[in-house]
């Protein structure tokens, strides 16, 4: 008796649902170019959705009108849903399959760009591995590889600077050795001059004058050599300071660029995450309304209130004219 009563009151009847299920479950989509197939699946899915929603709505009304039949209504509702819901899931799987194919095609189109970005750092990765990553995962992979590359470049620069500093030290050591040799030559020359002076004191005055003139010329030559060596030392020191200053300027520019690039990447990832969170919240809100039977046709049956953090949905029980 309960089964007969529910079959008579549910709309559409079970026979109509079976016919709809048989009509829809054979539908498939044959690739991205099958526009007719995509349209047919979408239209069939919406028929199934409307039928399912109508069954659920009728079930709720019957439970309210006849509490004593609630168990039978729920059982029949479940039975009818089991007829149409697998078909609905089948149709959704067909759509999901096409969506996955679209995503694959989009990633394939973007593959040369991704390979080019990685090639900037001398990285070559298999195409299949890159296509497994969505944009967020690829960006994380890209910036990690970029950081590794920059770290390696920093290591090479440090080794180059150390080599240049070693060359400067070698040049400084040579200058110090030359200075010591000049000082020793000067000491020997001074000793020699003193000995010659002692001998010249015993010679004739004219010979002494001539010899002193010769010694003065020699001294001038030594002084010239000393000045030349001093100029070479000062030039080497100036060259060393110029190299150090240039290396520091390059390091400052590189660090500033790295910080700017990292900030731009972090800002982009945050913006994409905020947009995704907003989209997910909108989807959950639409699902909340649909799950509770709220739509353009039924909205007058509900009362909705909102706070800063929540939305409350109340079902109107009835009206009484005074």
Give, in spatial order, the strands making up the sheet with the most strands: 1-2
Structural class: mainly alpha
Overall domain count: 2
Which strand-content bin applies to the residues?
under 5%
The percentage helix is over 70%
Please compute the radius of gyration using only Cα atoms: 46 Å
Cα-to-Cα separation, first versus last residue: 39 Å
The stretches of 5 or more residues where confidence is low (pLDDT under 50) are 1-5
- Gross morphology: rod-shaped
**Helix/strand order:** HHHHHHHEE
How would you describe the overall organization of this protein?
The protein is built from seven helices and two strands. With 322 residues, it is mainly α. It has two domains: 2-125; 133-284. α3 (35-65) packs antiparallel against α4. The longest helix is centred in the C-terminal third of the chain and has 87 residues, at 205-291. The two termini are 39 Å apart. Mean pLDDT is 82; it is low at 1-5.
